[in-house]
Write a structure and sequence with these properties.
The structure is a single chain. The protein is an all-alpha fold. It has two domains: 8-40, no CATH class; 43-77. It is built from four helices and no strands.
């Protein structure tokens, strides 16, 4: 597991420590949950999400790509 050093104001650090203690979680767990909330996930998670969506849609890869291109073009014309 990687380590990261960040600089926070004393107020923010204290608030983070209090939030972690209040929730019974570590600061690292609070930060991980926050990153998940903002959609920051490993590339494998994104690939898994796309694979599940494709499987549920019933579309083959080419049909899915055609639909994505069509929807992107329509959105750009708005």
């Amino acid at each position: 597991m990687s380590r990261l050093t960040i600089t926070l104001s004393d107020e923010r650090h204290r608030a983070l420590k209090e939030a972690a203690a209040h929730r019974g979680r570590s600061i690292g767990e609070i930060i991980e949950a926050s990153l998940d909330f903002y959609g920051i996930k490993p590339r494998t998670s994104a690939a898994d999400l796309v694979a599940r969506a494709r499987a549920q849609s019933g579309l083959d890869e080419q049909s899915a790509m055609d639909l994505a291109v069509e929807e992107t073009r329509a959105e750009r014309q708005r």
